[in-house]
Task: structure prediction
Amino acid sequence: MNKVDIGIIGAMKIEVEAIQAVMEDKKERIISGILFISGKLYGKDIVVAECGIGKVFAAICAEAMILTYNPDVIINTGVAGGLSPKLKIGDIAVSTSVVQHDMDTSPLGDPLGLLSGINIVNIPTDDKTRESIVKAVEELGINCVQGVIASGDQFVNSADKKQMIVDTFDGIACEMEGASISHVCYVNKLPCCVVRSISDGADDDSHMDYPEFCKLAAKNSTAVIKAFVQQYK
Ligand code: ADE
Result:
């Protein structure tokens, strides 16, 4: 098994291809249908995978990455819908914790989002990793907001759903993989952080511009990951 320093997971090609393009000594391996590319970036051993969209693909990818490459930390990167008015298109949301907004055993008396078994709603982010990422974002001069990132198997595009996630979980951004990857890292006692650039407003009309803004957002999240890897000790 090849041990790496950092594991990076994005759901879509656009979220990982610019990182994979600048890696050296690349080796490819397909596990459970997911392409993992390991190699060097700025002298660090990293592995980068495109997991596919949604929480199940993300969990498959995170577990396979941990068992195969044994990274010291996993970062989930990519784009997200903005829930906080402080986040505009292209800005960066960094997780302080993550939640699964579609997890609901409330008919049994549980709070919304409770992850049965581990009995928490918010999965905490690794502080050291979060601080290094925030430093990298600030050095790039991109606006950065830290807070709760909410994941669910749903592209959020309604004011009602958006409000529910804000009111219930105090979410600043929504996406479809981060909390799943963090859940896998949590049970494996591995540091994890979610870093997302805003591609849309997660409301009734802003998703119309999603294809265009997605490219800009993916460019920004990729730049942050490169800067993080460069500074990583
Ligand atoms: N990824 C990017 N925008 C999103 C949204 N509005 N909902 C879920 N995932 C997203």
Q: What stands out?
A: The beta strands are 6-10, 24-31, 34-41, 44-50, 73-82, 92-100, 123-124, 144-151, 171-175, 192-200.
